[in-house]
Amino acid sequence: MGSNVRSFFVNHGQTTTAADQKLSKVGSPCHLMPSNNSKKRPSSFILLIAYCFPVSDAFVWHSSTHRRIAKNQVLLYPHPITRPSLEMTAKDIDGKSVAESIRSELASKLASLPADVTSRPGLAVMLVGSRKDSQTYVRMKQKACADCGMVSFLEEYPKGEDVTEEMLLAKIRDWNEDEAVHGILVQLPLPKHIHEERILSEVDPKKDVDGLHPANTAKLFSTATHAGAVKLNWKDFTSIPFHIPCTPQGCIELLDRINDGQGIEIEGKNAVVIGRSNLVGMPVAMLLLHRNATITIVHSRTKNIESIIQQADIVVAAVGRANMVQASWLKPGCVVIDVGINSVDAPDTKRGYKLVGDVNYAEAKEVCEWITPVPGGVGPMTIAMLLRNTWNSWRRATGQMEG
């Protein structure tokens, strides 16, 4: 039967073979015979059974890859192949569980230090103003430090409007010189009268566990492709000799730990980052590039954004627009990392609102293979990466890590 079995592309409802018969409706069977013009007639009658279906959800599925069918065409599958089911339910990427594992790993390392090592990683946090959300985040960070055996220091300025830049700069300089402090974090946002960049730039890059200092940013954006450059192992963040922003680092860590810790292959994949912020979009794009993915960054001025995202094996959404990315924008089987945290009205809930991501989670689950929920996906990873950056800073300061 081998030489007589062929794949046929046809217009909706019509074959292009000698059988040339109309199909009563999409999805109905059609019977195809080898062309009468064949030089050699088959020794026996061969019946090919095929099924037509709309292009909007038509994909040719191979064992390990797929390609999109051209618009206004359908694919006929010869018997015994039946129409493939394109429905799937994505697996959640449990950021909370992964973060807990990382924090547990750090706690175990600290607990197993030799008795003569009395120093412990120290994280200093600066909180300016009385924003309830910032206060909550700071308390979470302090608790996380205590839970894994680290030390935390807090400097609060409740009356943010009375604080001067010099007051903050002076405290940061003190922390820069304090050997008990290995990580410094300035809780953002700062009051409007404070020059944020000036404050962040005052932090010693070696203690900049948020990874926001210009010196650390410059190192992250160096691809080290020139002769003589030192190649870094981007598959092991604990070996990187400078600090990487926490949320972008957490995104990559999730990709490396899904599927029961096996992770997914990043190298060679098409990755689309939605958003170009200095906090997430640009850094996570660089981290993916360091792992040899092919990167596209889309933003508010990008044309045909949907068609670009449809080509992505990996999608990182970090734009801050509730449910912006629809299921129809996604390539079947892709992996989605949703960084967005947006509140939308939910009158039927006790709080009157609920948190959602930048991706329409309910719909996307039917298309992609893996997806981070919101909340419970990327969020918990940020503090876990902050702790790991503080641990790395302490290791370098105490001579236990080069760089």
From TrEMBL:
Q: Which domain of life is it from?
A: Eukaryota
The residue ranges of the Tetrahydrofolate dehydrogenase/cyclohydrolase NAD(P)-binding domain are: 245-396
Pathway given for this chain reads: One-carbon metabolism; tetrahydrofolate interconversion
Residues of the signal sequence? none
Question: What InterPro entries does the database record attribute to this sequence?
Answer: Aminoacid_DH-like_N_sf, NAD(P)-bd_dom_sf, THF_DH/CycHdrlase, THF_DH/CycHdrlase_cat_dom, THF_DH/CycHdrlase_CS, THF_DH/CycHdrlase_NAD-bd_dom
- Indicate yes or no for the key word Oxidoreductase: yes
Keywords on record: Hydrolase, Multifunctional enzyme, NADP, One-carbon metabolism, Oxidoreductase
Gene Ontology molecular-function annotations: hydrolase activity; oxidoreductase activity
GO biological process terms, alphabetically, are: one-carbon metabolic process
Q: Name one Pfam family in it.
A: THF_DHG_CYH
Q: Where are the transmembrane segments?
A: none
Q: Which residues form the Tetrahydrofolate dehydrogenase/cyclohydrolase catalytic domain?
A: 93-210
Q: How is the subunit organization of this protein annotated in UniProt?
A: Homodimer.
Q: What name is this protein filed under?
A: Methenyltetrahydrofolate cyclohydrolase
Tell me which species this is from.
Cyclotella cryptica
Native organism taxonomy: Eukaryota, Sar, Stramenopiles, Ochrophyta, Bacillariophyta
